[in-house]
Specification:
Elements lengths: L1 H7 L6 H12 L6 H24 L7 H30 L7 H25 L3 H9 L2 H15 L6
Helix pairs in contact: 2-3, 3-6, 4-5, 5-6, 5-7
């Protein structure tokens, strides 16, 4: 059931979140051009994936288990890399290192490196061109990285 749904509609689970961010932006809740660009990029990726899946009738359900494994491995990498960075960067830059430009670069590198690596994996591992494009567009690690960036780095500074 899940495999057949994912085969026909690979981007549907991601669609409501990006629409919600766009709604917030349109209602003037947020005024960040980069957040608008991130939300529109994510929405366009999902729409393109849906269009390609419907036109080509691609068979990507066989990659579902590997996609979930890559997601779990990425979470482990994020946890270990964050703990290592926290220890190393605190020794180098002291307390509050995450507020510096260097700290922001370190955190964003840790956040988006697994997404880039898994996208490269899908580009090499998947043989059929349409499936390759779909797997790169709906890479769960990429979308989780984008959402973590939006929630943790952008929405964390809103007043409660």
């Amino acid at each position: 059931m899940i495999k057949s749904f994912w085969n026909k509609h690979p981007g549907v689970p991601l669609f409501p979140g990006y629409l919600l961010i766009l709604l917030f932006i349109l209602l003037d809740r947020f005024d960040w051009p980069d957040l608008l660009a991130i939300a529109i990029t994510g929405l366009v990726m999902v729409i393109i994936a849906e269009i390609i899946a419907r036109i080509s009738k691609a068979e990507i359900s066989k990659y579902l288990v590997k996609a979930l494994i890559s997601l779990v491995l990425s979470v482990v990498v994020w946890f270990v890399a964050n703990e290592a960075a926290r220890g190393i960067c605190e020794k180098v830059w002291g307390w509050g290192w995450w507020l510096t430009k260097e700290g922001e670069v370190v955190e964003n590198t840790i956040l988006f490196a697994p997404a880039a690596i898994t996208s490269i994996f899908w580009a090499v591992y998947v043989k059929k061109g349409v499936n390759k494009i779909l797997m790169i567009l709906i890479n769960p690690v990429t979308h989780l990285s984008i959402w973590w960036y939006i929630v943790d780095y952008r929405l964390a500074c809103l007043p409660t």
